[in-house]
Design brief:
The complex is a heterodimer of chains A (about 170) and B (about 80).
Chain A: E1 5-10, H1 19-30, E2 34-39, H2 73-77, H3 84-89, H4 93-107, H5 113-122, E3 126-130, H6 131-136, E4 149-151, H7 153-160, E5 165-168
Parallel strand pairs in A: 1-2, 1-5, 2-3, 3-4
Helix pairs in contact in A: 1-5
Chain B: E1 5-9, H1 16-26, E2 33-38, H2 43-54, E3 57-64, E4 67-73
Parallel strand pairs in B: 1-2
Antiparallel strand pairs in B: 2-4, 3-4
The chains are: A alpha/beta (about 170), B alpha+beta (about 80).
């Protein structure tokens, strides 16, 4: 049987949107796929050595439940509907939301992003950073983990053109 | 039923039970049996899908008090 292939483009650099590419890539690899992820624009954040800067923002995101991951059941189940205008004015609101999200992730036995990225690396998922965006954003190769490649759109197509699954995230 | 290796994936959520299963199968010889314990309800469908796509044989799925027990024979 010929090896199946999957290519992903990861374009988002927030804690929540870091999940889909790493979950799909690690799972596909476990299923025997050959996988490449092309990280571009904000997605480059996911290749940083230090991932502790990834945050989630409830601002302008009405789909995000705002729940407190501790306390009695009735309290945990409550959805705190906080207006955008309040969210934008309260200093550190994103930091608090991010801390709560990380706690919820722990409570649910969901892997952390560093963990999932490591699993991808162990499974030989090939990661490519968009060189153009690296320069555009003034990043340095030293900001990123070691075993990645740098390339452009043509590099992406070289692999993507032969894939069974190709997703833009 | 006898098994050759046991994986405790309780408390873990998608995709970790599948990733750990894959890793544990790597330690087995072809024909040997892996037992997986999981609490993730999504793992029932996922283990079937994993088996189907990787050629490993899912021998049985059982539920006991919110815990799922899988037996998988390595391809």
């Amino acid at each position: 049987m010929e090896t199946k292939k999957m290519a992903l483009i990861a374009t988002k650099g927030t804690l929540d949107w870091a999940y889909p590419p790493f979950i799909l890539a690690s799972t596909a690899a476990a299923l025997g796929y050959e996988v490449q992820i092309f990280f571009t624009f904000y997605g480059l954040q996911l290749l940083k050595k230090d991932l502790s800067g990834l945050k989630v923002s409830p601002l302008g995101n009405p789909g995000m439940p705002m729940k407190i991951p501790f306390g009695p059941k009735w309290f945990k189940g409550n959805n705190w509907n906080i207006p955008n205008v309040v969210q934008s004015l309260v200093p550190g609101y994103e930091n608090v939301a991010t801390a709560l999200m990380k706690q919820t992730i722990r409570n649910n036995g969901v892997a952390t992003i560093p963990e999932l990225r490591e699993l991808c690396q162990e499974a030989d998922v090939k990661m490519i950073a968009c060189q153009m965006t690296v320069e555009l954003f003034g990043f340095d190769h030293a900001d990123f983990i070691g075993d990645i490649e740098y390339g452009g759109a043509a590099t992406f197509f070289e692999f993507a053109g032969e894939t069974d699954i190709c997703l833009f995230i | 039923m006898n098994f050759d290796k046991e994986l405790d994936a309780r408390g873990l959520n998608c995709p970790l039970p599948i990733l750990r299963t894959k890793k544990s199968l790597g330690d087995l010889e072809s024909g040997q049996i892996l037992k997986v314990n999981s609490t993730d309800p999504g793992s029932v469908k996922d283990m079937q899908a994993f088996a189907k796509q990787t050629g490993n044989e899912l021998l049985s799925t059982a539920e006991n008090n919110g815990e799922f027990i899988f037996l998988m024979r390595k391809h």
